Amino acid sequence: MQKKLILLTFGMLTPLIFTISKVNASTFGAEIFCTMRDGGNDHESSWEAAYSYIKQQKGGIFKVSPKRAASQITETVIRDNEKFSYCIEYLDDLHPNRKLERELQKEEKRKEKEKKDRENKRKELEKELEKELEKELEATNEEFSEETLDRYSY
Fold this sequence. Notes:
Elements: H1 2-38, H2 43-58, H3 66-79, H4 91-94, H5 98-146
């Protein structure tokens, strides 16, 4: 009974410990990034230092992706904007390709719409052509049905 209680308590506290270390890692990662940027360092060196720290603190088999680490730093700066007010201007550098990604997605949607429009237009033209052919066929059949064919009239 006592072993079950210990295991249950350990099972409940373990996720809490990992969550606290994850929050601390992203908070200190944000501090590293913001302090280095505010100190005049370039984006790359500040980002590498913060990302290395966040990866190191995560531990385990799976590492934090660069996108996730950038999001954690952004969340920390936004959540604690009074402490990191000087760092807000640097957040855009953490997500440099978002504008490009949006433009590419917009372009892809436009191309997809054009493709669908062309396909619909093609289907409409095929239907119209089919109707015209049916009308011509009916007219030709009426001509032949009205004429008497004499197989020996040549």
